[in-house]
Design a protein that fits this description.
Layout: H1 3-10, H2 17-22, E1 27-31, H3 32-37, E2 40-45, E3 48-54, E4 60-64, E5 78-80, E6 83-85, E7 92-93, E8 99-101, H4 103-107, E9 123-129, E10 132-136, E11 156-165, H5 169-174, H6 180-193, E12 204-212, E13 215-222, H7 230-233, E14 236-239, E15 243-245, E16 249-257, E17 260-270, E18 285-287, H8 303-313, H9 330-347, H10 372-377, H11 381-386, H12 407-417
Parallel strand pairs: 11-18
Antiparallel strand pairs: 1-10, 2-3, 3-4, 4-9, 5-6, 6-7, 7-8, 9-10, 11-17, 12-13, 13-14, 14-15, 15-16, 16-17
The protein binds FE2/S2 (inorganic) cluster (FES) and fe (ii) ion.
């Protein structure tokens, strides 16, 4: 890759081509329950400092982080019936960003100063879906928040897990179409982490990459699987433009700025039939650490932590001019080309890939899902334990994906699933 293409694909600030492309999609940025606990949250998205809020009427919004008066931080402010008020001198902003009160200026207006109606902050739309808050920072017309089918599955325990990853979003997303890394970064690495030097897991023999409306799928045949397997027939999903989807698990890589990414995981565990009907009243969320506080070393015991370690190790913005790509990288090449083609589409006034604008199309939008029927219809605990994909959910090691799950979430999971969990940190294979 030429340096100029690397710069083009990785820069996400407002006004950059990829920044404009990424602004044409909705991005999950927080959990609904997070705002229930505290109604103001500072967020940084694509290089913009913003404040996410839930006002006293229950409206969500996203405003410029800094007050138009003298730049006080609105995340230290107060929510009002409609919008946010700065705590410093009381200027208030409604959801659309318009200033609706300048308490002292409203009494004594300085000659020539802008009236409150002329003062505006930038404001973006926010919607809740799947227990997450999503924002859209792009131009009109606004597309729909995708209603991916699993987001409305029943009888499941959902948790939303975040991490701030100090590297560019694209190298995180390239991991969404990188089947071979499972063999090494997760399976074989975990063999070594257990202190063994082998045997290593079955090798990948054959890969396929296919484009569909909402992304790409990758299929694999390994030494222990065949073309009859759903891993080949259905595959896993590189979801457009910045997520991985593996049946019951989404991972979005949301750009914080050019050098930092918010990892947002939505994880669904189907309860066994003996726990039905299960209705989750509150979807918990948590933030996981990347490094061990005591040693300063990478946490490498959990699946996503192994990924984070790999991505950050590639550099803040990885230098793609020195890459030597191989056959396993065909999917990565395809998504890079698609992004470059979509930059052209935007220039020509067309939509980039995968936007949904038709409400009729946006109803439980189906995705390729390995084991789909089991997530919907459910299985007995014994059947789940015998299923290669669902066994983990009824195992005491259930949350192998990210380190740092808080005790209250472990306890809620136990209550939902009828399990007693292993509370130790562990190295386990990810079941992928
Ligand atoms: S800085 Fe916000 S009201 Fe003065
Ligand atoms: Fe991974």
């Amino acid at each position: 890759m030429q340096q100029q293409d690397n710069d083009l694909l990785t820069a996400v600030r407002a006004g950059t081509p990829m920044g404009e492309l990424m602004r044409r999609y909705w991005h999950p940025v927080a959990a609904v329950t997070e705002l229930d606990e505290r109604p103001l949250k500072p967020v940084r998205l694509m290089g913009e400092d913003l404040v996410l809020y839930k006002d006293l009427s229950g409206n969500y919004g996203l405003l410029d982080r800094y007050c138009a008066h003298r730049n006080a931080d609105l995340s230290n402010g107060m929510v009002e019936a409609n919008g946010v008020r700065c705590s410093y001198h009381g200027w208030a902003y409604e959801g659309g960003g318009r200033c609706v009160a300048k308490p002292f200026e409203d009494i004594v207006q300085m000659p020539g100063a802008p009236t409150r109606g002329h003062t505006r902050l930038k404001a973006y739309k926010v919607q809740a879906k799947g227990g997450m808050l999503w924002t859209y920072m792009g131009p009109e017309p606004t597309p729909l928040v995708p209603d991916w089918e699993p987001l409305s599955w029943n009888n499941g325990f959902v948790q939303i897990v975040f991490a701030e990853v100090p590297c560019n979003w694209l190298q995180c997303q390239e991991n969404s179409i990188d089947p071979v890394h499972f063999e090494w970064q997760h399976f074989n690495f975990s063999v070594r982490a257990e202190g063994k030097v082998g045997p290593y897991v079955p090798r990948h023999l054959k890969l396929s990459f296919k484009e569909f409306d909402y992304g790409y799928t990758y299929g694999r045949v390994s030494e222990n699987s065949s073309e009859d397997d759903e891993l080949w027939q259905v595959g896993r999903v590189c979801l457009w433009p910045n997520a991985l989807f593996t049946s019951n698990h989404f991972e979005w890589r949301v750009p914080i700025d050019d050098e930092n990414t918010l990892s947002v995981t939505w994880s669904f565990a189907r309860v066994p039939r003996d726990r039905e009907p299960y209705v989750q009243e509150r979807i918990p969320y948590w933030y996981g650490p990347l490094k061990d506080q005591a040693t300063g070393r990478w946490i490498d015991t959990h699946v996503m932590n192994q990924d984070f370690m790999a991505w950050v190790g590639q550099g803040r913005i990885t230098d793609r001019t020195r890459e030597q790509l191989g056959r396993s990288d065909q999917g990565i090449v395809a998504i890079r080309r698609r992004f470059l083609a979509d930059l052209e589409a935007i220039k020509e006034g067309r939509d980039p890939k995968g936007l949904i604008r038709d409400p009729e199309q946006n109803v439980r939008v189906p995705l390729p899902i390995i084991g789909r029927r089991h997530y919907i219809e459910g299985l007995s605990r014994e059947q789940m334990a015998a299923d290669p994909w669902l066994a983990l959910q009824v195992s005491p090691d259930s949350f192998i994906f990210q380190a740092g799950q808080p005790e209250h979430v472990v306890a809620e999971y136990e209550a939902a699933m009828g399990l007693t969990m292993n509370r130790q940190g562990f190295v386990k294979r990810p079941g992928e």
